[in-house]
Amino acid sequence: MIPFSPEAAELILGYAFSDIVSRDGIDLRTREMLTVAMLAAMGTAQGQLEFHMRAAMNTGVTREEIVEIVLQVSVYAGVPAAMNAITAAKAAFADIGV
Hints:
Blueprint: H1 8-21, H2 28-42, H3 46-58, H4 63-76, H5 79-96
């Protein structure tokens, strides 16, 4: 397989994680909750949503809080986005064993 671009991952992830996620101002737990909400609202980033749901739970976000985030998404982003988020949550819950 031909790689997309040798420096693409470094540039994209470097910006996201080195420049944005590592900033002071929002603790990591809150940042992960926000990320879950935004990815869920997008409805098109299933793999990233599932990853960040697991990451959120690893920072102390509870299963119940993930459920509440998904319910909030259903109101503001719509039922299809919430249904996708439920699928991701079930996979993340199974992965973590909660």
